[in-house]
């Protein structure tokens, strides 16, 4: 089981996602335990204000440190935590990191940033790793937090049921995934590749590997540059390059 706390200004953005699909199944199956914490509950302001203007001037507002520290102070001091601050300036979240977090024994705390950012003293006083889901800006950290949680939860053994499907997915083996087809065999004159109808398992495996390499070459060549190629993969890459020429 993975244990998670989500600190947010907007609990109603988070709760509906937890009540759907894989996350709901994981909670009901005892694979995931989630507590949603409203940062505004720890404001010392009668208007529940949690932000203020930045020192030095500038546009926007900054999330104040007080309510965040109060929220952490309210937690069980004996409970080991791994704190993740969602931030566009953070390290990019990857499938490899999702796999690591799915094995984490500590409680995962997602601190959802908002406004122009979080007072820097939060990072100084509460050891946290800043993570981003991409080089773009969102209104708040709730969507990135839920994206990360979804990616992590589905890797917990037992959540999906079919462990092979997790292993074969895009990025799990360092390549983009091969194309998928289902019935009917012919749809609007578009035919499923003959090899997939052949029942020849090794031929299907080789076709899928070649298609994964082809897709990765076209869309994410950077992944291939990091990969330790097998002899079979190197041969297939050469075939694909020769075909292009």
Per-chain topology:
Elements lengths: L1 E7 L2 H8 L2 H8 L3 E7 L12 E2 L9 E2 L1 H9 L7 E12 L2 H8 L4 E6 L7 H6 L2 E5 L9 H12 L9 H5 L18 E2 L2 E2 L2 H4 L3 H19 L1 H5 L5 H14 L1
Parallel strand pairs: 1-2, 1-6, 5-6, 5-7
Antiparallel strand pairs: 3-4, 8-9
Helix pairs in contact: 4-6, 9-11
Can you put this structure into words, describing what you see?
The chain has 245 residues and is an alpha/beta fold. Helix content is 40%, strand content 18%. The chain is built from 11 helices and 9 strands. It has helices spanning 11-18, 21-28, 65-73, 95-102, 120-125, 142-153, 163-167, 194-197, 201-219, 221-225, 231-244; strands at residues 2-8, 32-38, 51-52, 62-63, 81-92, 107-112, 128-132, 186-187, 190-191. The strands form 3 sheets. The protein has a 5-stranded parallel sheet with strand order 2-1-6-5-7. It has a two-stranded antiparallel sheet with strand order 3-4. A two-stranded antiparallel ribbon has the order 8-9. Strand 5, helix 4 and strand 6 (107-112) form a beta-alpha-beta unit. The protein starts with a strand and ends with a helix.
């Amino acid at each position: 089981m993975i244990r998670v706390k989500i600190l947010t200004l907007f609990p109603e953005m988070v709760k509906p996602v937890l009540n759907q699909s894989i996350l709901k199944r994981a909670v009901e199956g005892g694979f995931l335990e989630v507590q949603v914490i409203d940062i505004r509950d720890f404001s010392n302001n009668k208007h529940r204000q949690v932000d203020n203007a930045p020192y030095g001037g500038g546009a926007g507002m900054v999330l104040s440190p007080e309510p965040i520290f109060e929220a952490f102070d309210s937690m069980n001091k004996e409970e080991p935590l791994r704190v993740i601050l969602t931030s566009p300036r953070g390290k990019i979240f990857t499938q490899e990191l999702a796999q690591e977090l799915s094995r984490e024994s500590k409680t995962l705390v997602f601190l959802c940033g908002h406004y122009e950012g979080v007072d820097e003293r939060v990072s100084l006083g509460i050891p946290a790793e800043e993570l981003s889901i991409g080089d773009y800006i969102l209104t708040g950290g709730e969507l990135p937090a839920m994206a990360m949680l979804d990616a992590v939860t589905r890797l917990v053994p037992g959540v999906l049921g079919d462990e092979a499907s997790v292993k074969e997915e895009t990025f799990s083996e360092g390549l983009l995934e091969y194309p998928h087809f289902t019935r009917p065999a012919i749809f609007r004159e578009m035919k499923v590749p003959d090899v997939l109808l052949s029942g020849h398992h090794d031929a299907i495996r080789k076709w899928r590997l070649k298609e994964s390499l082809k897709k990765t070459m076209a869309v994410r060549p950077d992944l291939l540059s990091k990969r330790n190629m097998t002899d079979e993969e190197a041969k297939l890459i050469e075939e694909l390059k020769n075909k292009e020429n």
